[in-house]
Amino acid sequence: MTTTSALTDTPAQPSRQVRRAGARRAAPTRLTPEAQNRRLTQAILDTASAQAAAAAQAAALAKAQLAEAEVQAWLKDMDARLTVIFAHPEENLGQMEEQLARSVKEPLRLLAQRAAQVKANAVACRCPECRGQLTQQRWLSRTIHSRFGPLTLWRRYGFCPHCGEWHFPADYALGLGRKAPASPYVQEISALLVSQMPAEQAVLVAERLGLDLSRCGLHQEAHRQGLKAEQWRSQFVGQLDTWEQIQRVASAAAEGPPTQPFTLVIEIDAWDIRERDNWGKTKELRAAGQKLDRWHWVYMATVFRLDHRGQTAGNRAVITQRGYAATRLGLEALSAQLYREALARGLGQAQLVLVIADGALWIWNLAKDRFPDARQQLDLYHAEEHLWAIAHDLYGKGTPEAQAWVAPLLQQIRDDQTVAVIAALTELKPRLLEAQHKKVQTQIEYFEHNAQRMKYKEVLDARKACEEGKATEEQKQLAKRPVGSGAIDSTCRQYQCRFKRTGQFWTTAGDEALMCLETLWRNGRWQELYPHAKSSATLN
Ligand SMILES: [Zn+2]
Prior knowledge:
Elements: H1 4-9, H2 16-26, H3 33-60, H4 68-86, H5 93-122, E1 135-146, E2 149-160, E3 165-167, H6 169-173, H7 184-196, H8 199-208, H9 218-238, H10 243-253, E4 263-274, H11 282-287, E5 295-305, E6 309-311, E7 317-319, E8 323-327, H12 331-344, E9 352-357, H13 361-370, E10 375-378, H14 380-395, H15 400-414, H16 418-428, H17 434-450, H18 457-467, H19 473-478, H20 486-499, H21 508-522, H22 526-529, H23 531-538
Parallel strand pairs: 4-9, 9-10
Antiparallel strand pairs: 1-2, 2-3, 4-5, 5-8, 6-7
Helix pairs in contact: 4-5, 7-8, 7-9, 7-21, 9-21, 14-15, 14-17, 16-17
Zinc ion is lined by residues 127, 129-130, 132, 160, 162-163.
């Protein structure tokens, strides 16, 4: 058995002291402390003068262009790539696209850098808040991750004596926040991709599209964009703080030529999301007697005009213009967001407002509070499910008896005969065991609570008349009215595809920020956060 002393007696490697001494001997010349200082000072001075030269050169730039030599280098590079492409007849257009896109990247990067520099130079060195002249002006460089790669920019900055802050006015003009690591385009793409898929997938997708997003800390960047979106949303919703503001917003929605009378449909629902705040503290908090809820409600709503709902050639319902509200921040937040969205979509002009949902009490309370004149309608399919639940309980799932029992009741619901359904269920009660008795009683209460919201006949008759080609004009309009809340059901499912993946946990701050981005996109207000996104549609 070897002992520790035996090991130290015969070291396999020279000790640290021995290695240091060796290194000292190997060093060519040893500098005196004074010489070392001089060398260091010189290095600092060299860097400073190089930087001053770079700043002066950047500050003098007045035109964004490529030098003749750069253009020649680019053409030469492209030629070389084309030669390679034609030397490989087995390669297809895909390789050509890749090579040509690469060859053009560096000239574009140079042009973008110079154009941004020219723009920065033209910005007056004034305080963006009070417009006062900034004092103690200096130059500082910053490297931004852009669509074409890293751009190094020099910006003049200064101190505002009035506001007591240092400012970089060019950063505002270029759309770069104080801490943005990326250009507005890269900010936007980060936000867009991460609101659709997990960041680690997004990096790979972006890479295939020719964007290296790994460098801008994709996840953090998307989160930052989400916070920006939340800020925008609270301003948007905050436009309704006073009665006068509400009137203004409502009349703004009415601008343009007068429209035909229309119905505004609002559908509301909720789903749950798994969150884990307080990472790593689960045991501790549980031990302290805290109950940790992992599942939380995400409240959602959608709002659209009935005349914006049509059908595809394949008979699938499509809604061409639609508003969304989605939040993890509670019912109050949903209520405010939905109301704002409804106003923007014509709440003030609608002839009829129709709120459709399942039977959840909070939804009807919200509807009563925000849309007191709206007609409330229980989702037909939820009502039917409640009857099926009893049928399965009494006769077993999938049995012909269950089918036979439920069929006339389903028809009664469709015929607006809820009273008859309630009577049939009540009649059933004395013959039931206690457990079944309770369940049936619960369902009776469900139908009693919702009875006045169960009016389907008119619409279903109109649809039938349309199929038979006997519909009046009024019926043709009525037939378009939904009897179920399918629009919000599918919206919830779509959000869940992103936010409820296997093994996914969120923090409240994290999911709200991303959800806000997703909703901004769906609401067609993306350009409010990314003005360049609007121009891309009109350019070319
Ligand atoms: Zn100021």
